[in-house]
Amino acid sequence: MRFDNAVFECAAGTPEQLIASDLPEIAFSGRSNVGKSSLLNRLLNRKALARVSAVPGKTVTVNFFRLDGCRFVDLPGYGYAKVSFDEKQRWSSLVEGYFTSGRDLRLVVQLIDMRHPMSDQDAQMLAFLRDSGIPCAVALTKCDKLNKGERERMLLTHCEAITRYGAIPVVPFSALKGDGADELRSIVARALEG
């Protein structure tokens, strides 16, 4: 599978704007500021296909990227405290609309910041995916910001927490250095083949 020919297709700000599910999809989910756009750019060998921002909560739409025979879907980040209740409700409705619209969803890549313990919202998402029967993998982002000992300790901590939700592949990932990118591409390719 080629990862270097992705194009931005569209952004949906409401459930009604979601495009038809006519291709297999790989969705990317995680807290605001966890590095979804940076991860997407690294996987797709692009510098700025997905817009990266220093401001958390910048992705407020479901963004669709078309590749050969599939789509990558960048879901809005959750957990950013400095947005209004109405905005949080809109995000929730949009993401719920995505998951309940009968899509050909092959895999959700759940991003978790490796430097910190899993949040309650991360746990809720993993429980939702397990209970919905949606395959997932976890990318532990920003692993380059930890030294070797911290990285090993946090990997063990995360793996122990994640096993409660099933046999989920866990990949330490660095958008900066590329750690885990090839492994994650392989997981995505296998999900699309299945």
Describe what this molecule looks like in 3D:
This protein has 194 residues and is α/β, with parallel strands linked by helices. It has a single domain (7-193), classed as Rossmann fold, CATH 3.40.50. It is 33% helix and 21% strand. It has five helices and seven strands. A seven-stranded mixed beta sheet has the order 1-3-4-2-5-6-7, sandwiched between helices. The model is unreliable at 52-57 (pLDDT under 50).
Topology:
Blueprint: E1 7-12, E2 25-30, H1 36-43, E3 62-67, E4 70-74, H2 85-99, E5 105-113, H3 120-132, E6 136-141, H4 148-162, E7 170-172, H5 181-193
Parallel strand pairs: 2-4, 2-5, 5-6, 6-7
Antiparallel strand pairs: 1-3, 3-4
SSE pattern, N- to C-terminal: EEHEEHEHEHEH
CATH homolog superfamily: P-loop containing nucleotide triphosphate hydrolases
Please give the CATH architecture.
3-Layer(aba) Sandwich
Q: How many domain modules? A: 1
Proportion of residues in helical segments: 25-40%
